[in-house]
Amino acid sequence: MPFIDLNLQQLQSKLAGGEFSSRELTRAYLDRINATGGSLNSFITICEESAMAAAEAADIRRKKGDAAPLTGIPLAVKDIFNTEGIRTTAGSRILENYVAPYDATAVARLKEQGAVLLGKLNMDEFAMGSSNENSAAGPCRNPWDPSKVPGGSSGGSAAAVAARQAVATLGTDTGGSIRQPAGHCGVVGLKPTYGRVSRYGVIAYASSLDQVGPLARTVGDCALLLQAVAGYDPADSTSVDTPVPDYSAALGEDVRGLKIGLPKEYFIDGLDADVKQAVETAVAVYRDLGAEIVEVSLPHTDYAVACYYLVATAEASSNLARYDGVRYGRRIDNGSGLIDMYCSSRAEGFGDEVKRRIMLGTYALSSGYYDAYYLRAQKVRTLIRDDFNKAFDQVDLLLTPVSPTPAFKLGEKVNDPLQMYLSDIFTIPVNLAGTCAMSVPCGFSGQNLPIGLQLIGRPFGEETLLRAGHAYQQVTEWHLQKAKI
Amino acid sequence: MSSLFEPVIGLEVHVQLTTDTKIFCGCSTEFGRTPNSQTCPVCLGLPGALPVLNRQVVENAIKAGLATNCRIAPRSVFARKNYFYPDLPKGYQISQFELPICEHGWLDIETEGRGPQRIGITRIHMEEDAGKLLHAEGEGGSRVDLNRACTPLLEIVSEPDMRSADEAIAYLKKLHQIVVYLGICDGNLEEGSFRCDANVSVRPRGQEEFGTRAELKNINSFRFIREAIDYEIERQIELIEDGGTVIQETRLFDSDKGTTRSMRGKEEAHDYRYFPDPDLLPLTVAPEWVERVRTELPELPEAKLARYQQELGLKPYDAEVLTADRKVAEYFEACLARHDNPKLCANWVQGDIQRKLNETGLAVNAIPVTPELLAGLLKRIDDKSISSNIAKQVFELIWESGKDADTIIEEKGLKQVTDSGAIEALVDEVLANCQPQVEQYRSGQTKVLGFMVGQVMKASRGKANPQLVNELLRKKLD
User: Which of A199, A237, A327 is the closest to B44 by Cβ?
Assistant: First the structure.
């Protein structure tokens, strides 16, 4: 079996067994990226030299008997993670040549283990988008059908795993940005509980919603990558100081007796027929595995998208104020004064969707509108969180579709932002509630596009998610299908 | 000033805290270092960097709150104040807005004309400072120094309870004294460690509602604060009397001209779009924390002032001079600990020591006459080894040499002569030489006694005990 078809667990054991070196493995991945990356546009930066150097260092470390679980494993991260000495653009023109002087905590934790960073992955600018079309580096394409979007904003993170350009990747999820592209690309994507993984060094979109998470072909691989990055970080005041369990240990248990809730508000009329059928089939699989299926209600679901586009844009309008052309990033100075420099730098540096959200958020926070928009959205957010808490009084997990439809065509929704926003209707509430969820491949559409099911867990209930997702992958083969690229 | 109008003044004071590190990162707060040498991703506002609150800043805020009779909020919230300026790296300042750490405090001041007044303190909140813009000579454009960015500040906001520049100064001096006493601020006005903005309005006497206020900025000394407020009161009264109206605006004080001028324009149109900072959790302060800080508070100036008068029996004026500066009070107390004569210690500290401080510009903890040396001198006054006049000479010699009083008295042979035999000889000599005065005295002009005492003292080169001289002269003349 070629290297690139092995999963992370398999790579670990073969590296440990000396069947091949990290250098050979890394070379194979770089070749794969060079052969297929161009057409997919999944990478913004490929770190050929530093990757090979890291692989060599990993091989030496392994020889010394000092290998950590991820030593020598080639990975890639969304271009939203700061990487010391390597360009970090966040998919924006305003940071097109920005090189950070420090590593994000998640990246630092991977490096400490001796993981190999293959490169930085394509994304919607500042993680704002659901199709990866809002990227200054150009759109990323879906490995299953290059005329389709991979989803977003972590489009590159999902596409690279589906195209076997990296065994696993890191993305970020603010309203579905890991789960939706994972669903569209037929891979597993896990958004941990808010506070589970440090946000330090991750370029902020919406601080109270952003969370780092893994994407991989198997649930087990996601557990391994989450294990490496999870945990309290004193540099992130919102990270939570609660012990990190052994995620892989959770994988062995079955789902007998697990109570799975189907929120009735998520099985709506607009749901694509193929998606509906695939998810219902998945429900049947769980029933067969011994899980108890019950209907539950999340009554405030309808307000989630509106609430999200107030909270997220308000925070974004402030988070993106630092891109002003003064200290770093793109500066357009026509010599006509400070205000003009600010305006020109931001006008030319930001794309349309980013500007749209900055304007929305600025408006929501403006004096006279704050109470009606921002404050009200916060109250709605509390109601949505309460919905989940009540549901979790009855069940252990929720099961829903990831997206209402499979991946759509490039350009199909770019001129209809509202339609685009609705593609995150099932993922957004989870971020507002701050809990964890995972996207798992559960079928294909008539057009042979992947379909994902979403499992939603209690806050810090990642183990239950992983256990249920793994049990499902033991009896299904959706995750073993390969995109023809 | 027209008596038809009453000024109304409220003050916003920015106190720079003397913590070792910045409020949201571990960088040093030291003043005067190479530009941008004390920065990190957090205070530079680099993409992805996040703030972490410095607990010492919170502790200092609690101290300030307790010392100004505030309620310490068990839960307070950091908020972002959004605006663009090149010295503000994140495009927002982290401050506190709706829920500050301290509220509802007050300070009592003495006023002329209105007696004692209680000045309300609306709130005290924590925030980060911005950087500095440097405008280099001969170079185009400006440079940004972010060493100061993210240094901790307290903003202390008063109620509009002051009615004159004098009252404003009294309040400010008291507040200044407190933060310096607490050891949370170095109190340096010129370096900007204690900055004041004044909100000034006037209203017809007897009117309840406030007039429109102007906010005065850029004032960096107590004298300038007084000048700025007085100028602004006059300006507003004249404007109203001439039929004009005061507009709400920010005005800059020009210390060269002693005037204020409008900085109208974009600055006025700010909507700061405050909202809770999602990068920082709400701050909870447990009651135990507040109580611990309360027990650790130093004796504050007001309590010290009362103690000096009631327990040490000092006069109000002396007590006030001694407590004005915590370091002077500490000097006094150190001296008193070694020589238990409050009045004598007080006289010397607020007399000769204070004079020397004024002359030399030295800080009291940097002068050559340490409390130990001063106490040594005062002992010799009280045991009558030297007279007060000789003591002044000895004091100067201690100041110059750093030697102790006993050494100097010994070396210079300045010990007071209390041997009545030796003094009697001098008295006889003077009486023999002053026949006309002796006759004058005996004819009832007793005032000439002073002259003769002087002559004896002169003959003893100041070392004779003046009381003894007096007694002997009387005995011989009467």
Answer: A327
